[in-house]
Amino acid sequence: MKNLMLALGLLSLAGTAFAAGKPCEELKSEIAAKIDAKGASGYTLEIVDKGTATDGDVVGSCEGGTKEIVYKKG
Question: Is Signal found in the keyword set (predicted)?
């Protein structure tokens, strides 16, 4: 349940960020802060070209939708 709430929160952040067209590093920092505030640990956030994420969950889109931020646990 906690993971579901985290995922929903991240998706809402991602939608907002896509509309604003934020720089990737700025968005990545914001997402990391929200994840950390929920007490999560042992994760990575990676910036990749759109559509190239093979594993993990896409939690954000940045640089005008050309890149994605991928969340991987562990």
Answer: yes
Q: Identify the CA nearest to 63 among candidates 30, 15, 27, 12.
A: 27
Length of the chain, in residues: 74
Mean local confidence (pLDDT), 18-41: 88
Distance CA 62, CA 73 (A): 21
> What is the per-residue burial (b if ≥16 Cβ within 10 Å, else e) of 32-65?
beebeeeeeeeeebeeeeeeebeebbbbbbbbee
Q: Is the pTM for the entire model greater than 0.85?
A: no
The distance from CA 62 to its chain's CA centroid, rounded to whole angstroms, is 10
3-state secondary structure string across 17-60 = HHHHCCCHHHHHHHHHHHHHHCCCCCEEEEEEECCCCCCCEEEE
